[in-house]
């Protein structure tokens, strides 16, 4: 009689995600993954698949968790500009508090350039962020909370573009105060 594979698949994917986050896709070995997940390689292959499939599941888990958290965090906020501010502040917190930077941004530069499957997941995450912020920007313009003369799409692109720059800046300089000052300046610019 075959022995059942006994492990929590969601927990295993979450543990694998942490390894990929820390070491990157190319720097992670199967041994790293099985040790972190507390399983042997045959259990991994039989339940999840190979390293690439595990990476796909990890990236999906990461991006879907971020999307759900953003909606949960912003939905109760009635003022669109306050929701935009909260999103920017939350982004700053993640940028300056996550020891390994943003997994989606790291993945974009390491893997998505050559892997269409990963690229689709990252694009979906980016499209979600764009649509969420664009909706808030449009509502803020309609309510007069934002008085800039630029269109909502351009302003949304402008906001989102800051996040990747802040990630790079923080990785290099490790200066939380400078990121916070840039975020405050961005909010002041949007409100003009």
From TrEMBL:
InterPro entries: Homeodomain-like_sf, HTH_TetR, Tet_transcr_reg_TetR-rel_C_sf. Residues 29-48 bind DNA. Gene3D superfamilies: Homeodomain-like, Tetracycline Repressor, domain 2. Residues 6-66 form the HTH tetR-type domain. Keywords: DNA-binding, Transcription, Transcription regulation. The keyword Thylakoid does not apply. SUPFAM superfamilies: Homeodomain-like, Tetracyclin repressor-like, C-terminal domain. This is TetR/AcrR family transcriptional regulator. It comes from Flavobacterium qiangtangense.
């Amino acid at each position: 009689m075959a022995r059942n594979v006994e492990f929590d698949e969601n927990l295993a994917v979450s543990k694998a995600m942490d390894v990929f986050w820390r070491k990157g896709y190319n720097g992670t070995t199967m041994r790293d993954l099985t040790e972190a997940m507390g399983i042997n390689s045959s259990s991994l292959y039989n339940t999840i698949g190979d390293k690439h499939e595990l990476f796909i599941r990890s990236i999906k888990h990461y991006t879907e968790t971020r999307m759900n958290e953003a909606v949960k965090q912003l939905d109760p906020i009635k003022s669109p500009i306050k929701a935009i501010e909260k999103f920017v502040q939350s982004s700053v917190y993640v940028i300056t508090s996550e020891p390994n930077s943003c997994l989606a941004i790291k993945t974009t530069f390491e893997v998505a350039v050559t892997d269409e499957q990963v690229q689709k997941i990252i694009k979906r995450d980016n499209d979600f962020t764009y649509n969420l912020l664009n909706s808030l920007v449009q509502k803020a313009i309609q309510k007069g909370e934002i008085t800039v003369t630029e269109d909502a799409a351009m302003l949304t692109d402008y906001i989102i573009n800051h996040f990747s720059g802040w990630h790079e800046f923080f990785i290099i300089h490790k200066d939380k105060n400078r990121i916070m000052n840039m975020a405050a300046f961005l909010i002041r610019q949007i409100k003009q």
